[in-house]
Design a protein that fits this description.
Radius of gyration of chain A: 23 Å
Oligomer: heterodimer
Structural class of chain B: alpha+beta
Largest sheet of chain B: 4 strands, antiparallel
Largest sheet of chain A: none
Order of helices and strands of chain A: HHHHHHHHHHHHHHH
Shape of chain A: globular
Distance between the termini of chain A: 10 Å
Strand content of chain B: 5-15%
Number of domains of chain A: 1
Number of strands of chain A: 0
Number of helices of chain A: 15
Number of domains of chain B: 2
Order of helices and strands of chain B: EHEHHHEHE
Strand content of chain A: under 5%
Number of strands of chain B: 4
Strand order of the largest sheet of chain B: 2-3-1-4
Shape of chain B: elongated
Distance between the termini of chain B: 10 Å
Largest interface: A-B, 70 and 67 residues
Radius of gyration of chain B: 25 Å
Helix content of chain A: 55-70%
């Protein structure tokens, strides 16, 4: 091997697999009829998706007034949900791009599903700003193009427009990266299929043959896409944080926001990956590919990023006090002890305190703890965005306009509806494509399969090299 | 990709190491390998086949540079010539505010440009019929193929002998 390999290798593929067995294990879920659990989950997701459609139609028909947002708290659940979903998407890119550059081979078990999660999460995120525009049929105004309205251009100095560019670029680049990675695996599915199914996969695998030159270009493309996705993913949440950081609202205009948002995004994204992976590996019987070692590695990332987020929370409080500026101090006093104190303490508990249990190896390697905490962290990170947005706006410059915000049924339906949308897409994905990158797993079999390394290494078996 | 049909003699190996040593033997015997097909990227194969490093990343840089230039110049033209807008007394040509979008355009152009180029030079698009020699190549077989359209029987036997010598699991002929 010409690449650098860590001196201590971990078993990443358990169960003495051959190349053919890997294909069998990873392709068969797409070939069998769906299980009852899948059908129930799909039905439930579809129901929530229907609720989403209903609530959106209601919003568009009746107007934004149907939401609980008011003149003082003009950004509330919608932007909270937007930032939450975007953050969730970040783990997919981190796993697929940053870990590829760092040559972390455990990524191969989870990258495909995490990237899919990124794409679906960004789709969910995009719903909120689009429908918050109110007159959604004019949404194309955000796209700068020569027009007969003046020409009237978008404001390139506005962080909201930077967001449009960042998120649409992020979505399309993630899609290219994910799909290009998927093409060889779709070809594997194609070559096992017959009849109409074969025709469908023939179309979607673009005529992939596995030629050496194609693999070489495919690897070159993957590496460069990973290289440009890395600063891209950092830029996306940085720019999302600019929506707040470049404003003049005390509690928002802080320079710590970009790194703090990025760390929080990775934190919440990994939590969502854990939620999905713990279920996926069980339902699709992939425990030998998404092993406890994978779960543990991700829990390590969670405890790191959770701690970074905790430091950021405390730094904010310290800087507010240290600034000696009473408006800033009031904003933070209000954030902690104001009307939304419960959201602040919920956030602190879920994001800073709860992940600390992952310092224990036993808990890091426990499926139940991982699943439970991943849900807690998802809730905590939602609270974080709510705290930053609604709490800050609730007590603005004029006490006469202070306000309180409660979501209406429409907003609750839209949010739970996007969860339906997300799982709807994810469940379809698990049926039509291999959820683990087949070619990439095969490529690491001889350096991470348990028959080649570790205690169970089979010296005179098929481990030839 | 080829429009006319070619007669191909190919051997299937069970392991990438067998394939790599076979390529070495073929090189020593001056056999002209048409192509090698594998289920996953096999490292160390490219230099044996004499494949030069892909130049795709140079193109990526060029596409990115085009995107950056296009984004920055468009914003500059719009905000200084076509539609100057006063935002809080700041200069019309407010370069720092253009940086985020310039960056995003760089990434967007580089990614799309490279991906489109990749599929084009590989001759891969939706609707392209895959000329696969064997369905197991995307599963667990490592394939080496020779173009024998105009080969004599003696040449055919020579290649078959080579496959036998290098432990190929199967040898077949197919017209693609």
């Amino acid at each position: 091997m010409s690449q650098a390999i860590a001196p201590v290798r971990h078993v990443l593929i358990e169960g003495n697999k051959s190349y053919h067995q890997i294909t069998e294990d990873l392709v068969s879920p797409t070939e069998k009829s769906p299980t009852r659990e899948w059908i129930v989950a799909f039905g439930l997701s579809a129901a929530f998706l229907a609720l989403y459609v209903f609530a959106i139609v209601w919003t568009v028909w009746k107007g934004i007034g149907e939401w609980g947002a008011n003149r003082t708290i003009n950004w509330a659940w919608d932007i909270t949900n937007f930032v939450w979903w975007i953050g969730i998407g970040h783990a997919g890119t981190l796993i697929s791009a940053i870990l590829l550059i760092f040559r972390q081979r455990w990524r191969t078990g989870v990258n495909r599903a995490a990237e899919a999660m990124t794409i679906f999460a960004v789709i969910c995120a995009g719903q909120f700003p689009i429908f918050h525009m109110g007159r959604v049929w004019l949404a194309f105004f955000i796209m700068p193009f020569p027009n007969s309205r003046g020409p009237l251009w978008a404001n390139f100095n506005s962080p909201l427009l930077w967001d449009v560019f960042a998120i649409s670029t992020y979505f399309s680049v993630s899609l290219l990266f994910w799909y290009t990675g998927l093409v060889p695996d779709l070809a594997t599915v194609r070559d096992r299929a017959k009849g109409f199914r074969r025709k469908v996969y023939d179309t979607f695998s673009f005529g992939w043959t596995g030629s050496a030159k194609h693999w070489q270009r495919w690897e070159a493309l993957s590496l460069v896409l990973a290289g440009i996705s890395t600063p891209l993913v950092l830029s996306v949440h940085t720019i999302v944080s600019f929506d707040f950081a470049t404003s003049v609202i005390p509690g928002w205009h802080t320079t710590i926001f970009p790194p703090y948002f990025v760390a929080g995004a990775v934190f919440s994204g990994f939590a969502m990956v854990q939620t999905l992976m713990v279920i996926t590996r069980k339902v699709l019987n992939l425990q030998e590919y998404i092993t406890i070692n994978h779960i543990e590695s991700m829990n390590k990332v969670i405890v790191l990023t959770g701690t970074i987020v905790g430091v950021a929370y405390l730094t904010e409080l310290f800087m507010a006090w240290y600034s000696g500026y009473i408006y800033e101090q009031f904003a933070f006093y209000n954030r902690v002890f104001g009307v939304y104190w419960w959201a602040y303490f919920g956030m602190m508990f879920c994001n800073v305190v709860s992940p600390q249990v992952f310092w224990s190896r036993k808990i890091r390697r426990s499926i139940w703890w991982t699943f439970f905490l991943s849900i807690v962290i998802n809730i905590g990170m939602w609270f974080e965005r709510f705290v930053i947005i609604a709490t800050t706006l609730a007590r603005d410059f004029l006490p006469s306009s202070w306000s309180y915000y409660r979501p209406t049924w429409v907003e609750i339906s839209i949010f739970t509806g996007t969860l339906g949308l997300f799982f709807f897409c994810y469940l379809i994905f698990t049926r039509v494509a291999p959820v683990v990158a087949i070619a990439e797993v095969k490529a690491i079999l001889k350096i991470a399969g348990d028959q080649y390394i570790g205690e169970k290494a089979n010296k005179n078996g098929n481990g030839k090299h | 990709m080829a429009a006319q049909s070619n007669k191909v003699l190919y051997g299937l190996y069970n392991d990438e190491e067998d394939l790599k040593s076979a390529v070495k033997v073929a090189n020593a015997a001056h056999l002209d390998i048409m192509d090698v097909f594998t289920p996953f990227p096999v490292h160390g194969l490219d230099p044996l086949l004499g494949l030069k490093e892909s130049r795709l990343h140079y193109l990526g840089f060029i596409y990115g540079a085009i995107g950056a230039t296009f984004g920055f110049l468009t914003m500059s033209w719009i905000f200084t010539r076509d539609w100057p807008i006063m935002v809080g007394g700041k200069p019309y040509w407010s370069v720092p505010a253009f940086i985020p979008i310039t960056f995003e355009m760089t990434v967007l152009f580089a990614a799309w440009g490279m991906t489109i180029t990749f599929y084009t030079i590989c001759g891969m698009w939706p609707g392209v019929k895959a000329n696969t020699l064997d369905d197991r190549i995307t599963d667990d077989k490592f394939c080496m193929a020779f173009d024998v359209t105009s080969a004599s029987d003696a040449d055919m036997d020579g290649i078959k002998g080579f496959f036998q010598k290098t432990n190929a699991a199967e040898v077949n002929v197919k017209t693609i």
